Amino acid sequence: MRKAKKPARPRAPLRVGIAARIYAALGALTTLTIIASAVAWLSYDRISDTVGEMVEHKMPTVEMVLELSQVATQSTALAPRFLNVQTVQQRARLTTELDTIEARQFELVRTVGKIAGVDMKPVQKALDDLSLRINDINDLTGTRLRNSAQMASALEQLSKAREDFVKVVGGEADERQFNVVLGIESVKGLDGAQLDEALKTVNDLEFPAFDLARKLEAQVNELIGLLREVGQIADQSLLGLARERLNAVVLRIEKDMAAADKIKPNDARNRVIDSVIALGEGPRGVVALRQRDIETQDAINALLVREALAGTEVVRLKGGDPFIFGRGGEEAEDARAAGVPVEVVPGISAANGAAAASGIALTHRDASSIVSFVAGQCKGLAEQDWSGLAGKGRTLVIYMGVSTAGQIADKLMSDGLTPDVPVAVIENAARPEMRVLRGLLAGLPDLVEREAVKSPALIVIGEVTARDNAAVAALAQTAKEHAAQ
Description:
There is one protein chain. With 485 residues, this protein is of the alpha+beta class. Among the domains are: 137 residues; 135 residues, 2-Layer Sandwich (Methyltransferase, Cobalt-precorrin-4 Transmethylase, Domain 2), CATH 3.30.950.10. Helix content is 65%, strand content 7%. The chain has twelve helices and five strands. The chain has a five-stranded mixed beta sheet with strand order 1-2-5-3-4, sandwiched between helices. Helix 1 runs parallel beside helix 3, helix 3 runs antiparallel to helix 4 and helix 4 packs antiparallel against helix 5.
């Protein structure tokens, strides 16, 4: 008989107490913490190195590259401002500003190349090309200013030469006329040989001398008028025609001078006439100056077209409205002829801005319903018909009229305007040094000379210039007070 065995007792599963579990978890967490700390420590080193490199090298480089871009933009913005320069002082200030910008550009390019260790030659070449273009514009501006100053000086000398001429030749003509009259009176009561001798003297000496003096007076006045006209010509072909007319007038004058010398030499007469002729001829004469100015404008037109065709976005910045005595039409025509699209941005013309800045209303229900703009330096001024441009109920604004103020006054009065019409001369409109000078038409030349008026200046003629502008001034003051609040 087999002995029965006790059934095996089931074995209880292994249990881990809560404390042991906590200890195990803490151990694992400690291990993870140590590992994480090691990773963080290693990562921190790399991050620290990266941040250090950025702070030391990359961030300054980025900042300097951004500044270089800004400086290049400033340099580009200077270009159109050079084309709008009106005075030597303005050009000098812009040139100084350009020099400062270019110096900073060079410094930034050199520093970026050194820190970043990159080749900056392409950047430097692009900046050099930009500088060359701007300097080309600056040179053209300088040439234009020199031409303008030399032309103004030549016209001023021409006015002085005319005064001297009138004194000498006009006086001689009056003297010859007196001698003719005296000679005719002296033959009364004479007969025979005495009568023949007296008539011979009048016919062969006094009358031809008087006739030549008057002819010289008329021809030199024609020459002076022609030279003033040449000073405003803007076309090569028209200048060529004017040069031919000038040569023909000079030949007639020289022929009559030689004939007058045969009758009675007069060194003073020859000297004043030669001085007028010299102002028209030669390398410093009005014709040569006008030729250089036309060539300068042609060069500006060519520069605009060349830059546009090269892909540059060209801005031709002008003061006032480009299509009112601003040569904008000529430049736009050249650009379109070359296939360059042109966009014109309208501006506030000098007449509108200057009148408003000086408190003169160009139109007024009680004074003026018509406004006309004319150029005071225009071709054929004496031959133009200005009747009706100014007078009752009208306002006339004259651009570029300072140097020809005397001619303008004479022209308007000869065309029927009364000498007592009010006028105003606005110098440096809307600038801190602005002056508004008032007077009458007959006194316009004296006003301009006495006050030493310089361009830029406008002449406004009409009743509106004499109206009390106290109300306008009060409104302007109120506006300034509101703006300051």
